[in-house]
Write a structure and sequence with these properties.
The chain is mainly α and about 190 residues long. The protein has seven helices and no strands. Among the domains are: about 80 residues, no CATH class; about 50 residues, no CATH class.
Length: about 190
């Protein structure tokens, strides 16, 4: 039987431990990695992860700490699996789109504004109507300026200019310059 051995490069030190072999991860990447591991272990063992209120509170505090000072990375290994799983769920939920299409968001906003036009308060109704009037497609309050580009030959442009100049010339008044002397000038 023949043995096959891979080629090893010499002069490359091996890491002292598994932690040293791990690449540097951002806090989010580390949370996601830990959550995937926790989920896989839960699935393999058949034990569901059910965070208690204390785990949820701890995850919320940890999330608040991440948001207020992202440079300070706490040691995630000290937290329980349910806390980390709940934290990963919070991070994943915060990072997803509530609506997949902006068109869906626009429909939602328009529908809510239409509903607000039925409010009992005149201030709310007028505000909703004003916002509805500013929506693209409605444009009730949009001021428009239209520019028409007219393509003409040089001869047509010359003819139009000469006609305009002739009209202006007819409107001109010939004047005669008269010098007026005042008594104080004499």
């Amino acid at each position: 039987m023949e043995y096959i051995s891979p080629e090893f490069e010499s002069g490359i030190p091996l890491p002292a431990n598994a932690a040293e072999a791990m690449p540097d991860l951002s806090p989010r990447e580390e949370i996601e990695m830990r959550a995937r591991t926790i989920k896989m272990l839960s699935d393999l063992s058949g034990n569901p992860i059910l965070p208690k209120d204390a785990d949820m509170d701890e995850a919320r505090q940890l999330a608040h700490q991440f948001m207020t000072d992202p440079s300070q990375m706490p040691q995630l290994a000290q937290y329980s699996n349910p806390t980390l799983a709940y934290l990963a769920g919070m991070v994943a939920q915060h990072d997803t789109y509530i609506v997949q299409e902006l068109a869906d968001l626009k429909k939602f906003i328009v529908n809510r504004l239409v509903a607000e036009t039925e409010d009992s308060s005149a201030k709310v109704r007028l505000g909703a109507l004003r916002m509805l009037g500013e929506i693209d497609g409605v444009d009730a309050f949009k001021k428009r300026t239209e520019v028409t580009h007219k393509v003409q030959s040089i001869e047509e442009v010359e003819k139009e200019l000469l006609e305009t100049l002739a009209k202006l010339e007819r409107r001109t008044v010939d004047v005669e310059v008269v010098e007026v002397k005042r008594e104080s000038d004499a």
